[in-house]
Amino acid sequence: MSHPGTPTATWRVLNLSLELDEPESVLRARAAARAGVSADEIRGLRLGHMALDARRRGARGRVRFVVHVDLQLDAGLESRGNAAFAKALRSGRVIPRMPPAQLAVNAPHISLREGSGSGPRVAVVGSGPAGLFAALALARSGVLVDLIDRGPVLTERSRAVAQFLGTRNLDPEANLLYGEGGAGTYSDGKIYTRVDHALEAPILDEWIACGAPEEIAYDARAHIGTDRLHRILPRIREGMEALGVRFHWRTRLEGLVVDGLAGSQRVSALRTSAGELPCAAVFLALGHSARDSLETLAAQGLMLAPKPFQLGVRIEHPQGLIDTARFGEAALARRLGAAYYSLTSRAGAGAAAAHSFCMCPGGQIVASVNEAGLLCTNGMSNSRHSSPYANAALVTTLGSSETGPGVFAGIDYRERLERKFFVEGGGDWTAPAQRACDFLAGQDSEELVSCSYKMGIRPGRIDALLPEAVRSALGRALEYFDRQIPGYAGPEALLVGIESRSSGAIRMPRDEATRRATGFTNLYPVGEGAGYAGGIMSAAIDGARSAHALLGQGTGG
Ligand SMILES: Cc1cc2nc3c(=O)[nH]c(=O)nc-3n(C[C@H](O)[C@H](O)[C@H](O)COP(=O)(O)OP(=O)(O)OC[C@H]3O[C@@H](n4cnc5c(N)ncnc54)[C@H](O)[C@@H]3O)c2cc1C
pTM higher than 0.85 for the full model? Predict the structure, then answer.
C-alpha cells in the first residue's frame, strides 16, 4: 500500500526467481534486496510480469517462475545518494516504469464532442477488439458513438455457430469471424503481446472489471478463454451502452458517402444494409476477412496496399506430449496448467523461415470461415484448457514474390488454396489431415490419429496441396521443432489444413501521426483488417490509439 499523500514513483525489478512451492509473499524481501532498498521503503508492490521458465536446468530439471515486480518507492529516491539503489539502476536490474495511460482522455477543445446533441456521431465499423476499444475510448472521453457490425449480438451469433457445427449450414454474416466481439470471440483469448504499450494496462483493467481473472494483468501467457469471453463481452457492451454507445447489429457497411476534394475527402455518412447513417468521423475495424467490403471501399477511392501474410497448417498433438516435453513430467500440468510452446525455425537449405503461432493448449481446431466453398482452420480453447489436445498454427510468411503483384493478389492466393482444401475435404468443411511424419515422407496417411476438429477430418496429401514454398518451409520447421519437442513431428502429430488467416494480406495506408487514411480527413483504419495488428490485444491497442488521435491526444509508442 502506498502512504497517502507521499508522492511515489514506480520501478520494475526484473528477473526475480520464484520456486513453484514458494508463496508470492517472499517476493517483497527478494525485490527489496535486488533493488538495493530496505523492505520498509516499499510503498506498494504488484506483480508486473510472471512467466514459467520451463527450460531444463542441470540435472535437477528445475521448473520455476521468473517474475518482474513493480515497486512504488518515494519519488526522487534515485537522487538521494542510495548507492545500492543507484547500482541496481546502472546494472539494469531495476528500470523506471511509466505510468499507464488512460482510455479516457480529456480533450475539452474538441468541438467534436462529436455527436453531442442531435449532430452526427462518430461511427465505428466492426465490434472486434479494434472497433470495440476505439468506441470505448471515445465513449469514455464523452464522444457519442454508433457502432455497427454485419454480424449479430453474441447470443444470436452463438446459435448460428452451433447450427453451423451441427448442420454444416453456414450463415455468411454470423459465424466464427463475424458478430459481437469479432474474430477472437471463439478463441483461446490469448491477450499477451510483444509490445509493451501504456494502453495495455487500462485495456486489461476493462477485461478484469468485466470478469476476467486478475492474473491477466501480469501473467506472461494470459488467456481468457472462449467461455469467459462470452461472459465478459456482454458486460463490456452494457457498460458502453450506459455511456451512450448505440450498437447496430446485422448492419453491414456497403459504402461511404464522401465529399470534399481528392486528397482531403471527408466521409459524411455510411451506406449500410440498414440505410444511411450520418457520421462525424468513421473508424474502419473490419478484420481480415471482409473482402467484399474492401473491394467496395477500394472502388470508392480508399487506398489499399498488399502486405506479407502468414499461411500454413494447424498442427495438433496430444497435450500430454507437450506437457512432458516442457515440464519433464506430464503430471506437473495439473498444477501449472497445460503447457504451451512458441517455436521458430530460420530460413536455410532453400526453405523459408517458419514459426508456430497462436498455440492453444488444451484446445480444439475450428473452422474459422465466413464463406461457402472455402476452408480455413484456427484454434480456440476454454479458460481451463481442458481438452486433451494441443494445437497451433505452423506457418510461413508469403509476399508478392509468391502471390504476384496486385492489391488483392494475397487474398486471391489464399482463397485459391482455401478452395482447394475445401474440395479435398469433401466440400462440407471436413478438413484434409496428414500425419506429420507422412508429410515429411511425402506419403499418404493410411491411418489418422484422433483430432479435436468437430467437423471431422479425412486423409489428404497436405504436402501436395500446399505450394512448394510453404511445404519446404514447414518441412524444415517440423524437423527442427522435433529436436526441441521430441515427437513434435512423430506419428502422433497431425497436420490439419489450411491455416491461412493468421494475418491479413492488405494494409490501409494511414498517416503515422494523425492515423487517418491517406487522402481522408476523418477516416481511421484500425486493427487487423487495416494491417496494423495481429491479435486481440494489439488490435485493441490500435483502436484505442486511433481514438486518442482523433481526440488530439497521441498515445505514442
Ligand atoms: C478462431 C480464432 C482464434 C484466435 N485466437 C486468438 C488468440 O487467442 N489471441 C489473439 O490475440 N488473437 C487471436 N485470434 C486473432 C484475433 O481474433 C484477431 O487478431 C482480432 O480479433 C482482430 O481484431 P479486429 O478488431 O481488427 O478485427 P475482427 O476481430 O476480425 O473484427 C472485425 C469485425 O468487423 C465486422 N465487419 C466486417 N466487415 C464489416 C462490414 N462491411 N460492416 C460491418 N461490420 C463488418 C465483423 O463482423 C467483425 O465482427 C484468433 C482468431 C480466430 C479466428
Answer: yes
